[in-house]
Automatic annotation (TrEMBL):
Highest taxon above the source species: Bacteria
Pfam annotation, one family: Arginase
UniProt keyword Hydrolase present: yes
Protein name according to UniProt: Arginase family protein
UniProt cross-references to SUPFAM superfamilies, sorted A to Z: Arginase/deacetylase (SSF52768)
Family: Belongs to the arginase family. Agmatinase subfamily.
Metal-binding keyword on record: yes
Keyword list, A-Z: Hydrolase, Metal-binding
Amino acid sequence: MSPRLRHALCPDEHRARSVLFGANTQGAGFSESARGRSDAPRTLFTADFMRDADNESPSLTESLEDGAGLFDAGNLPVEGLAVPAQLSVVRDRFASLFLRGQRAIGVGGDHHIKYAALAAVSDVFEDCGVVYVDAHPDCVQSDALAFDSILHHAWKLPHVRPERTSLFGIRQVNAREREGLREWKPGVIHAVEVVERGLPAVLDSMVAQLGGVRRVFVSVDLDGLAPHEVPAVEAPYPGGPTFRELLVLLRGLARRYELVGLDVSEFIPELDPARLTALVTARLVKEFAALPSPG
Ligand SMILES: [Mn+2]
């Protein structure tokens, strides 16, 4: 039996405002980093490490709220499934929560959770914006669905558009990804802009770029954040925004958009002996679940 996040105090999924689930998707491949070359199986389920860390070191949210509106649904049964079946299970879970008007929070797992979540966004919403927090643009124009081509494939879905997607925290781009950026032309907020222009200006340009959307989905690859705070990822790269800066951004987005959901990927528990990455993930989940809706 998996642990449950004790902070998630809502006893009934159907009455919850936000629903958390783990989805240990596998098979999107590993990055080109030295750590990423390992073929060692990844620990199942990463969401459980987040739950354990938060249960041992609990906290209310920044605004001193408990998790009365958050239900923890445990983990989806994706172990041992082929990739198409994993994608289908995760996509259906996100979509059913979107259809019920609940905020869906999925903790992976590798990059396949991102594609499944964006496929559900496309299934349910015609004009939802996407904020994609990542050090990398994941837009290589390759026929295979993999860690570096998630957005290339997502932008081929009927209702996920590059002009309604904002990449935040970008700072490690290879030549193939640069080609993808030139082809698709999404919004890009480089990591340095957070300091150079400041978060209020960054938020303003993100809002201007996303256009008239009312809803936004947030996809977080943990390597998008600063590796001194979030070290337990496959491809850490220096110079990212801090968790605090991401939280300020999310609070600004929540004043303007209905935040329909969140996915979090690339947390590798065996690289997290101090549980720092687990605690950042838990805090992200708790704060996201408690963010208000506009007006
Ligand atoms: Mn990444």
